[in-house]
Amino acid sequence: MVTPRWVGTVSQPIAVRDVLNYLVACLRVKETAGRALDIGGPDVLPYRELMQIMAAALGLRRRLIVPVPVLTPRLSSLWIHLVTPVSSRIARPLAEGLRNPVVCRDAEAARLMPHDPRPVRQAIAAALGKLEAGEVETSWSDAGPVPGDPDWAGGTVYVDRRAVEVAAGADDVFAAVCRIGGGHGWYAADLLWRVRGWMDRLAGGPGLRRGRRHPERVAYGDALDFWRVVGVEPDRELRLRAEMKLPGEAELDFTIEAGGEAHEPTRLIQTARFQPRGLLGLAYWFAVKPLHAVVFDGMLEGVRREAERLARAGRPATP
Fold this sequence. Notes:
The protein contains nine helices and ten strands. With 319 residues, it is α+β, with helices and mostly antiparallel strands. The protein has two domains: 2-132, Rossmann fold (3-Layer(aba) Sandwich); 141-313, 2-Layer Sandwich (Alpha-D-Glucose-1,6-Bisphosphate, Chain A, domain 4), CATH 3.30.530. It has a six-stranded antiparallel beta sheet, covered by helices on one side. Helix 2 (47-57) crosses helix 6 (120-132), helix 3 (73-83) crosses helix 4 and helix 7 (170-177) packs across helix 9 (278-313). The radius of gyration is 24 Å and the shape is globular.
């Protein structure tokens, strides 16, 4: 990996849990009032070594890191955006700040609020444990404003609506719909989704690297790859807004209509809406429209199979 010179800058990482410990403790210790206190973990190490520790924790081989002096903060942010899930908007101020050593100037915090913070390897292991257990409370990808309903008025809106009947209850259909994105993929045409993600990444968009906070549950504002959850009604609807680079506004909506009787199938309706922006937007819609039969029909069929599998397995209802 080619990196800027700042990978040699030393830092003193601290676990989020230890930060919370200090924040609570300072409310009880009067001597902390009106003071600026530096807090950090027990390890002082360069960012290069922090990357290697993270690679080892993820079970990856040791990385070959080649620092070069020519990467400006702007170039660094674009490179970080391309090879990691972090967007260039976040990466640029991050790259600019990482040029400065970040270590505690004194031990006043430890003296006033005695505490044994976790070593960096323990802190990383705890964070990864939360991720594997699906207990991540928040993620950087959740940051920023969540747009409201788009203004569909005043312009042409193209609609692609498809439906399928599913031999499963509304709860199982909703659970299958909520598994799209992240590690589960998109049920069909995953290669096309990956190509679209690569194109979006190169254009400066989020691409498919953001993943998702929980493998099955979704909530308003969650990021699902390059989509954002802008509407969720359990067992009834999931509405997604596109955040990839597009010449227009796009939404993908899943509506679930339960059968009137116990033996009647559930109906799943998938609706894609696109409001083009100029001639480029029109060209985009008609260029990708032939792929909808592959992508959207395949997705509906995959959701149907997964929902019926959940129904046969007698899956307990998702809270």
